[in-house]
Design goal:
By secondary structure, the protein is of the alpha/beta class. It has 16 helices and 16 strands. The chain has helices at residues 24-37, 51-63, 77-86, 103-110, 114-129, 147-160, 176-189, 209-218, 240-249, 265-276, 297-305, 334-343, 350-366, 372-384, 427-439, 483-505, and strands at 2-3, 5-8, 41-45, 68-74, 93-100, 134-140, 164-169, 197-202, 223-226, 256-257, 391-398, 406-413, 416-423, 444-452, 461-469, 472-480. The strands form 4 sheets. Strands 2-3-4-5-6-7-8-9 form an 8-stranded parallel barrel, surrounded by 8 helices. Strands 11-12-13 form a 3-stranded antiparallel β-sheet. Strands 14-15-16 form a 3-stranded antiparallel β-sheet. Helix 8 (209-218) links the parallel strand 8 (197-202) and strand 9 (223-226). Helix 6 (147-160) crosses helix 7 (176-189), helix 7 packs parallel to helix 8 and helix 8 packs across helix 9 (240-249). The chain is globular, with a radius of gyration of 24 Å. It binds 3-methyl-2-oxobutanoic acid and zinc ion. 3-methyl-2-oxobutanoic acid is lined by residues 13, 98, 138, 140, 166, 168, 170, 201, 203.
Length: 506
């Protein structure tokens, strides 16, 4: 069976989606989970683009052993130098350099002729090849490029030392037959193609990213570039979970091998959704809430009689327990708690374990039953909050249909504590205003969502907010059995991220 290398770009292309930015610590948590999932190559970021991107890339490269760590660089020496520096401690490193090859991009964006583009591409690959273990070259907007020219570019960059050549459908314009033809033309016409792996990178503007990726694989691509939950620019990238399960479920037609542990899919999807703030639609294949739910009587009857009548894969195969597993009780010790956390696929540090355990005890006191879903929410909360700049210590709300909603809060920043009070149009508005006063910043609330994590009156509430300020956007989340507390934590979480973003852009 041919091996398909899975290149995950959630931390680079995925994070380019507006509002999806994560802190360096959060990115490291994601990278750890990607390596548990079995990803071969993790694109950790675009180091030249901001100090935050650089820091996250450097941290992942230094601390995560196993997968290849890739960093993006334009075909410019300065970009390659910064990417090299960010990757300097990586066990396995790759520079991913790119330049556009389509007539429209060369003429209007780069203002270069085709020969100049080839020269830049070759120069960049030669410059990068002795700095890291592997060099990948991407022909941006490949699917709208002249095919003869594309083959010529690839031949030259392979001669210059690229061992992976990537075919991006940058604007999600291609259809499967077209992508298939591009890949087979490259295979048949690039004379030195045996020295490189062909990769494919599809965007989802027409909803064809996964279909195009499969067509590329069937025509000889052996690396697929994807993001978890398909997050990314505009309509996103090829969704990892859809591609992997298509390959898994239809191995009769597509006999390819990957290193992916499919039972880690559900956890990973939830982690990314929570850290990036990108919600998973209910009907999203593989990881959506309804992906395994059978509503119609005929379907339910069929499934009960013989599961395969309406189910082509099991929830367990993607690590979905159903959200109804009773976890632990109030009296479960730290030991039992830790092993459940590990069973759920998380690898927390001692400190993180202790923090989550504390929150678990707090929840177990208020809620009769604590489910896996609750526990996952608490864990993800903790991962999302690592090293917060500002931390909510206390809040009090006075509200009622005849009272002016008033919030009092206490926020800690290292050794300093800020106390503030504010009134608002409602309790949430009052608490957000008090937080802004305490932190000394303001932001526009674009989205506010609250939902129950599990069923029942005692359910834990999860709040997600999206805020913007001066062109930056950030999402935040918080969870608690008290939705006002969850709201306050979500807002502080988002403001922390926004402050980090502002700092890194300066
Ligand atoms: O979509 C694209 O063209 C890219 C490249 C940088 C690979 O993300
Ligand atoms: Zn892309």
């Amino acid at each position: 069976m041919d091996h398909i290398f899975i290149f995950d770009t959630t931390l680079r292309d995925g994070e380019q989606a507006p509002g999806a930015s994560m802190t360096a610590e959060q990115k490291y948590e994601v990278a750890l989970q990607l390596s548990r999932l079995g990803i071969d190559i993790i694109e950790a970021g675009f180091p030249i683009s901001s100090p935050l991107q650089f820091k996250a890339c450097e941290h992942i490269a230094k601390n995560l052993k196993g997968p290849v760590i890739a960093a993006l660089a334009r075909a410019i020496e300065k970009d390659i130098d910064i990417a090299t520096e960010a990757l300097s401690s990586a066990e396995n490193s790759r520079i991913h350099t790119f330049i556009a090859t389509s007539p429209i991009h060369m003429k209007y964006k780069l203002k270069k002729n085709p020969d100049e583009v080839i020269e830049m591409a070759v120069k960049a690959v030669k410059y990068a090849r002795n700095k890291v273990q592997q060099v990948e070259f991407s022909a941006e907007d490949a699917s709208r490029s002249d095919l003869d020219f594309l083959c010529k570019v690839f031949e030259k960059v392979i001669d210059a030392g690229a061992t992976i050549i990537n075919v991006p459908d940058t604007v999600g314009y291609a259809i499967p037959a077209e992508i298939g033809n591009i890949i087979s033309t490259i295979r048949n016409n690039v004379s030195n193609i045996d020295k490189a792996i062909i990769s494919v990178h599809c965007h989802n503007d027409l909803g064809l990213a996964v279909a195009n990726t499969l067509a590329a694989i069937e025509n000889g691509a052996r690396q697929a570039e994807v993001t978890i939950n398909g997050i990314g620019e505009r309509a996103g990238n090829a969704a990892f979970e859809e591609l992997i399960m298509a390959l898994d479920v239809r191995k009769d037609r597509m006999p390819y091998k990957t290193n992916i542990n499919t039972t880690q899919i559900y956890n990973t999807s939830r982690l990314i959704s929570n850290l990036s703030g990108f919600e998973i639609p209910k009907n999203k294949p593989i990881v959506g809430e309804n992906a395994f739910a059978h509503e119609s009587g005929i379907h339910q009857d069929g499934v009960l009689k013989h599961r395969e009548t309406y189910e082509i894969m099991t929830p367990a195969s993607v690590g979905k327990g159903g959200g109804t597993n009773l976890v632990l009780g109030r009296h479960s010790g730290l030991h039992g708690f830790k092993s459940r956390v590990t069973e759920l696929g998380f690898n927390l540090s001692e400190e993180e374990n202790k923090n989550v355990y504390k929150k678990f005890l707090y929840i177990a006191d208020r809620k009769k039953e604590v489910y896996d879903e609750d526990l996952m929410t608490l864990i993800i909360d903790e991962l999302g909050m690592s090293n917060p700049t500002y931390k909510l210590e206390y809040f009090n709300i006075i509200s009622g249909n005849k009272a002016v909603p008033t919030a009092t809060i206490k926020i800690r920043h290292n050794d300093e504590v800020f106390e503030e009070a504010a009134t608002g149009d409602g309790p949430v508005d009052a608490i957000f205003k008090a937080i802004e006063r305490a932190i000394g910043t303001t932001a526009k609330l674009e989205e506010y969502k609250v939902q129950a994590v599990t069923p029942g009156k005692h359910a834990m509430g999860e709040v997600k907010v999206l805020i913007t300020s001066n062109g930056n956007s950030a999402t935040g989340r918080g969870s608690s059995t008290d939705i006002l507390e969850a709201s306050a934590n979500a807002y502080v979480n988002a403001l922390n991220k926004l402050l980090l973003l502002k700092g890194s852009n300066q």
